[in-house]
Design brief:
InterPro entries: ConA-like_dom_sf, DUF1349, P-loop_NTPase. This is Uridine kinase. It contains 8 helices and 22 strands. It is α+β, with helices and mostly antiparallel strands. Strands 6, 8, 9, 13, 18, 19, 20 and 22 form an 8-stranded antiparallel beta sheet that branches. β8 and β9 form a beta hairpin.
Length: 370
């Protein structure tokens, strides 16, 4: 808070006035915080607070639209009128505070002197809502704000980020971290344990058994649910990463990360060997017993890769780093199961024959707030 006050005071000294924008997700405490700032400054300055009011009937209109959150995002507020109100407010005030959703949109041409983001998790936002509106906040407004994040990066534009959520006061838990805490992998166990594996100083070494794989029904008709998966269980949102070195031998040899609810609901991402051709990066998403495979072909052979899966509720983002090109998004997907507890971890398999050797040199699972 001291850094915020210092920034505001510097702007007042510089310009004899200051325009402050306060934003955050729904129920992050924007109105309360704006009034708190007003109380702090009104003894020395004239202060005016503008709380955004959405356009009349826009919520009902958006709910009837085929893309409700998109319609609300584009039509919720008349920012031209708000700019006029700001100009009028400065005729008689030194400090003008504007608080509300979407004020840091790329298309909003308001030159705030100080931008404040109130950081709050979606979990806490939903808990703060009244019972009759919980569904609205955990569905409609969550999608609205995730769209806002994707398009506008409002948090990244803020001069000051203030944690306004008790959840964020605690350090996120590191559930597994092989490099910094090797014993943490003792929390993990095997689903379909390989015949040959061991924990080494530089990683977890696995030789995959033959005719092992994760796949369900689609296109090929077969069902195979016996890939080697070293996992832990959690109901938390998380980011999971691994670095892998490998020596493929047979067609379709593969290794990577997996998130699993049960045999019919899971996702995996991997690098897969193609005999005579460069390997493929892939992501398989399986819902209700049917697998959906997306691929990206590499332009050269590689013997190492890095994967990352991020969980937000039922949604997942899959990313990969190969050839030191940096993290690239491979897929965004959804698991439909209502179960909160998932198995998450590393995997490898050999759908054709054995001989594949894999070394997972890094495994990390860290709690993320959502």
């Amino acid at each position: 808070m001291e850094s915020l006050y210092s920034l505001i005071n510097d702007k007042i000294k510089e310009n004899n006035k200051v325009l402050i924008g306060i934003s955050g997700i729904s129920l992050s405490g924007k109105t309360t915080f704006a009034n708190k700032l007003k109380g702090l400054y009104q003894s020395n300055y004239s202060v005016y607070v503008i709380s955004l009011d959405e356009n009349q009937d826009v919520l009902n209109e958006s709910v009837d639209n085929i893309n409700p959150s998109k319609y609300y995002y584009e039509n919720a507020y008349d920012f031209g009128t708000i700019k006029n109100e700001i100009e009028e407010a400065f005729k008689n005030n030194d400090v003008v505070i504007v608080e509300g959703l979407l004020i840091f949109k790329n298309t909003v041409n308001i030159n705030f002197d100080v931008k404040v983001w109130l950081d709050c998790t979606f979990t806490s936002s939903i808990e703060r809502s009244s019972e009759d509106k919980k569904e609205l906040y955990e569905d409609y407004f969550m999608w609205l704000q995730r769209q806002h994040f994707s398009i506008d990066n409002p948090k990244g534009k803020a001069d000051i980020i203030i944690k306004n959520d008790k959840v964020l006061e605690n350090e996120a838990e590191v559930l597994v971290d092989f490099i910094n805490n090797p014993s943490s992998v003792n929390k993990m166990k095997w689903l379909y344990e390989p015949t040959t594996w061991e924990v080494r100083k530089n990683g977890i070494y696995v030789e995959s058994d033959k005719i092992t794989d994760f796949w369900q029904r689609t296109h090929y008709g077969f069902r195979n649910d016996n890939a080697h998966m070293l996992y832990m269980e959690t109901e938390k949102d998380f980011t999971m990463t691994t670095k892998i070195k490998f020596n493929p031998v047979n067609q379709f040899d593969q290794c990577g990360l997996v998130v699993r609810i049960d045999e019919d609901n899971w996702l995996k991402t991997s690098i897969e060997y193609e005999r005579g051709n460069p390997p493929k990066l892939g992501a398989v998403v399986t819902n209700l017993g049917y697998s959906d495979w997306s691929t990206e072909e590499l332009d050269k052979q590689v013997d190492e890769a890095e994967f990352r899966i991020s969980r937000e509720g039922k949604d997942y983002k899959i990313e990969v780093n190969v050839l030191n090109r940096g993290w690239k998004q491979l897929r965004i997907c959804h698991l439909h199961s209502s179960k909160k507890i998932v198995k998450c971890g590393i995997y490898c398999c050999s759908p054709i024959d054995n001989g594949y050797k894999v070394l997972f040199t890094d495994i990390k699972v860290k709690e993320e707030y959502f």
